[in-house]
Amino acid sequence: MSVSVINPLSVRCRIRQLATASVLLGLSGCGLFGHEKAPEVPKLASAETLYNNGIDALRTRRYTLAAAEFEVLQQNYPYSGYVANAQLMEGYAYYLKGKYPEAVQQLNRFIGLHPTSADAAYAYYLRALCYYEQIADVQRDQQGTVESMDALEEVITRFPQSKYARDAQLKIDLCRDHLAGKEMQVGRYYQQERNYEAAINRYQRVVQDFQTTNHVPEALERMVEVYLDLGLTDQARKSGIVLGYNYPGSKWYRFAYNNLKRYKLLNEKFPIPGKLVTAPATPAQTAPPPTAAGAAPAPAAMGQAQPLDIKKAPVAPVKAEPAAPDQARVL
């Protein structure tokens, strides 16, 4: 039997090669899976330099550094003339970074210390935007939407003539539409579960509290569905009439119209879907003479039919048992 002899020199060479390979692998690993670059830390300088550095960082989208520059300025030069602007700009940097709670905290500090500042309107508006950006979809809790509306309404109340008031109003309308959408989602769930009383309460809230939103036609149509399921034919008719007079071209009125027709609940008060509700034209020979100013009376003064108020949708309790289709067809 032959015995192989291991050369110690070759072993040392192998170990050295393995060690070198491990080091190279570690270095390549750092390159492949390297850590993020360490955040830049502001250097202590004059208040003016810190402020300008923060502005430069904002312009180059280094928002974390910008916030840090402004914070260092406030901590080291609390009586500097740059402090107020630094507070506001730090809030703005957090907003751009998407750190909305930190932005709100900083903006609250600015508002509390400088309530009469020329930039106060912008601070209130920016704070409202922070809440607005955090609005969750309708599948989730809507407390953020309520907070956003409150903050936006404060902008309008405090600064009604500012350039931010109009945009705040537009965003309030969007918030209201969002809240109405949440009510509709919950109402549809209750309706599917045959919890009709809870469903009607949700739909009625949309009709009464969110009249300017796009969800009102569907809410009225859903009310027709629920009332028919309950056998409450009068309430179903009233909801359908209100829907038809206010939204004759809506697909939801077409659905309600066909549903009521199937139950033989239509009458002359129901407009044809897609047809605007207008008063018949006044014959030319019976038109009133011109006024002294040479103009005829306005159409509204001539007895033109007006759409029914949405608030006239029925709000009666809905604890009745569902009626059979044959019973519901009885007029």
| Sequence stretches where pLDDT stays below 50 over 5 or more residues | 1-15, 17-34, 279-331
Give the N-terminus to C-terminus distance in angstroms.
113 Å
How many individual helices? 13
Radius of gyration: 34 Å
Q: Report the order of strands and helices.
A: HHHHHHHHHHHHH
Helix content: 55-70%
State the secondary-structure class.
Answer: mainly alpha
Strand content: under 5%
Write a concise synopsis of the structure shown.
This protein has about 325 residues and is mostly helical.
Structure, described:
The chain has 331 residues and is mainly α. It is 60% helix and 0% strand. The protein is built from 13 helices and no strands. Helix 10 runs antiparallel to helix 11.
Record keyword descriptors for this entry.
331 residues; mainly alpha
